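Journal club prep — side note

Before the paper discussion, L.F. wants everyone to see what a predicted structure for a comparable chain looks like in token form. Sequence:
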Amino acid sequence: MKILIISNMYPSPQKPYSGIFVKNQYDYLKKELNQDIEIYAMERSFTNKIGSIFKYLKAFLLFFPYLFKKYDVIHLHYFFPMVILSVFYKILYPKTKIVVTFHGSDITNFVNSNLSKRFFTKLIDRCDYIISVGSDLSEIIFKKLNKKSDLVLSAGIDERVFYEEESIKKEYDFIFVGSFIKRKGLDILLKAIQIVDNKNIRYCIVGSGVLEKNVLEVSKKYNIILLKNQTQEQLRTLYNQSKFFILPSRDEPFGLVVSEAIFCGTPAIVSNIGGMKDQVKDGINGFILKENTHDELAKKIKEVENISEKEYKQLSVNALNSNQEHSLENISKKLIEIYNEL
């Protein structure tokens, strides 16, 4: 069985951690399948709209040599626009099966009119197996394309990288990891920090983006450490150094960083949306915000700051014992089962 993975997200020197989960999944599958799997991926780079058009045109042209190779399965990460390559390949080789994993923006950003719906429906009808990374995303796919997902399956957390580092000192009370954009709810967190108004609470904010100036402004008054470009190993240590992980996203199909923190024994505080509510069990391995507002988050920050050491320890232990179904090993085994069944 020969497999080709196609993705328009993959790490690059400019964005070394963009689409890292695709690389992790490919590396693990390659180890299990030996030489029977290849990848065709676009490395992420900073471009404007015109630059993006040329980038995709180049990617389509560079795919040409793959048309002369025979694959039993094509596994596509991110539906559009690389699905066009997959479908074109299937026209040439009708016996090839297409597995597509939807990650969120690949459908929410494109299927927004009757014309686009008809176009995407024709493309998805050519696909043989549909995976969505979260239960809410599965509902969106059905609503927009009238197509049921065959399986809800995350991209997987590499348990060889994210684990508890014993006897490590807690340096931060709360950590946020993500792009500095409103969709990730960073503005909600910054406002909540100001409402709590406690300079003794230690925050670690990791990432980059358009809201960086807002982070720097708030950090002038409060105890905030800003970090950029952290490796996965560095993130593991930061998770272990933090008491709680916070992600008040407005939209999050899954949110791998939530389980990254949980795998390190760090309870998570998240909004009640997307795949995050599939990962966090309220009061067990973290907390789900009743409302995704700065007032509600500020209230939760104050609340967890006052929990006992015994209560916190139980949350941490519960975190370590949860979400193993999202381990990279389990996800990869499931994918191999799917490939073999098609």
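L.F.'s comment for the group: The chain has two domains: 3-156+327-341, 172-325. Keep this in mind when we get to the figures.
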